[in-house]
Design a protein that fits this description.
- The protein is mainly alpha-helical.
- It has a domain of about 100 residues: AhpD-like.
- Helices cover about 60% and strands about 0% of the residues.
- The chain is built from eight helices and no strands.
- Helix 1 packs across helix 2 and helix 3 packs parallel to helix 6.
- The radius of gyration is 16 Å and the shape is globular.
């Protein structure tokens, strides 16, 4: 871990809530809203989230599975995300969510009109904005946790 965490302090709560309380608390609330307010389907949400986790290399994010109403994606879902181009486990919306996350996180300059044509055939504009905000949150905050070495001590906080 890059940050010196005082003995007895939880690394995530310390970094996200105490070091820079004005920014950290707001960032934590934003990060949590992605989970509590998203209207995207669970499979689309998780395909994008796990793709960003893979790109970021965030250990916690790769292992975590979002749960909605007691439901999580299947155990093999992370492998399907890695194989998003060829997997039979994905419908077109889920495949596009994984592809969009990969492009957004690693090659956003290559997002072209042909991609948008395919994307907008499956997602309405509100969904594209929501997915973009989710991906942006995961990219920023998952990468922050990975770069600072917090990803091995990470748990989703309930509040700050």
């Amino acid at each position: 871990m890059i940050i010196d965490v005082p003995e007895g302090k939880d690394p995530i709560n310390y970094v996200w809530g105490e070091i820079v309380p004005g920014i950290g608390g707001a960032a934590a609330k934003t990060a949590m809203k992605v989970y509590s307010e998203s209207t995207l389907g669970l499979r689309e949400f998780e395909a994008a989230r796990l793709m960003v986790a893979e790109i970021n290399g965030c250990v916690f994010c790769q292992d975590y599975r979002t749960e909605r109403d007691g439901v999580k994606v299947e155990e093999s879902f992370d492998q399907a995300v890695r194989d998003w181009r060829t997997t039979e486990a994905f419908d077109e919306r889920t495949r596009l969510a994984a592809e969009y996350a990969a492009l957004y996180a690693a090659d956003h300059h290559s997002i072209d009109d042909a991609f948008w044509e395919r994307m907008l055939a499956e997602y309405d504009q509100r969904e594209v904005v929501e997915l973009s905000m989710c991906i942006g949150s995961w990219l920023a905050f998952g990468r922050l946790n990975r770069v600072l070495g917090l990803d091995t001590a990470c748990v989703l906080p309930s509040h700050f």
